[in-house]
Design a protein that fits this description.
- The chain is 54% helix and 0% strand.
- It has 267 residues and is an all-alpha fold.
- α7 packs antiparallel against α8, α8 packs parallel to α10 and α9 runs antiparallel to α10.
- The chain has helices spanning 4-22, 27-32, 66-75, 84-94, 99-103, 111-124, 130-138, 144-157, 163-169, 175-184, 194-200, 206-220, 234-251.
């Protein structure tokens, strides 16, 4: 049987439909009036920007005059302090010929000076700075932050020179340095970095091993069994490293680093 409440509800609904009919409205129109229907507007592409003239200044390639050399020397202590950004800009303006002077900053007492010197070399973008940067990266007495930055900039400037430094840093007692070597190795497309990376797979620090295996995947595209490196312990990692060791022993004579993957452009 239908309850009294349900009967009243039906009566209210029927009465509402009758009233809508008397008003000349269809029932669905009463609902549509209270709804917002999304409408897709026609797409208008933004206007194309006009070409901007190149106002950059070409880097200096001429040898420095005695006056410019003296000026560069006076800029070294200014790489730390209120004028450091101005001093860095001046070195960039002097360009690659100022590198012999700028390299002196890598052995100056202030760590801020040394860091800013490395940053300035990255802005000058001269591969000639790479040997000095790699020496700074390998220096055991240098603070880790500067060693990391020196390796990173050196790899960007000339990765072909980096394998000996990566091999040395992969054996460093500081795990931060080992991790930097493992990470930057993925940008060095040389077979010489494969063995140091494999050696790091069994590292006592998980984040070092994970960086190493990711670099190995990037460089070699070698497929191995799936392992949960994120939840691994040292014994797990040492066991899993055997897969890479066996593969490398069989392949290192004939293996060639594959070409890097390129992203397909849309359209």
């Amino acid at each position: 049987m239908i309850g009294v409440g349900q009967q009243r509800m039906r009566q209210v609904v029927v009465l509402g439909l009758i009233l809508l009919g008397l008003m000349g409205m269809r029932p669905e129109a009463g609902w549509a009036g209270s709804m917002v229907w999304p409408v897709q507007m026609p797409y208008e592409a933004p206007p194309k920007s006009e070409p901007v003239p190149d106002v950059s200044i070409a880097p200096n390639t001429k040898a420095l005059t005695p006056e410019e050399l003296q000026r560069a020397e006076s800029l070294l202590p200014l790489l730390e302090g209120k004028q450091e950004f101005w001093a860095m800009g001046e070195f960039v303006h002097l360009g690659e010929p100022a590198l012999p002077v700028l390299t002196k900053a890598l052995t100056m007492p202030g760590p801020r000076i040394r860091y800013n010197a490395i940053e300035t070399m990255s802005m000058i973008k001269a591969p000639a700075a790479t040997p000095a940067l790699l020496e700074a990266a390998k220096l055991a007495t240098e603070i880790p932050r500067i060693r990391e930055h020196a390796l990173r900039v050196a790899v960007r400037l000339d990765p072909q020179q980096a394998p000996p430094a990566i091999e040395a840093m992969a054996k460093d007692p500081n795990s931060v340095i080992r991790k930097a070597a493992a990470f930057e190795a993925r940008y060095v497309r040389k077979k010489e970095v494969i063995q140091p990376l494999i050696d790091l797979l069994g590292d006592e620090e998980k984040f070092v091993a994970m960086s190493a295996v990711q670099s190995l995947w990037t460089l070699t595209r070698h497929e191995t069994e799936f392992h949960d490196w994120d939840a691994s312990n040292k014994q797990d990692r040492q066991n899993w490293a055997q897969e890479w060791i066996e593969w490398w022993n069989q392949s290192k004579e004939t293996f060639e680093i594959p070409d890097p993957k390129t992203r397909k452009q849309a359209g």
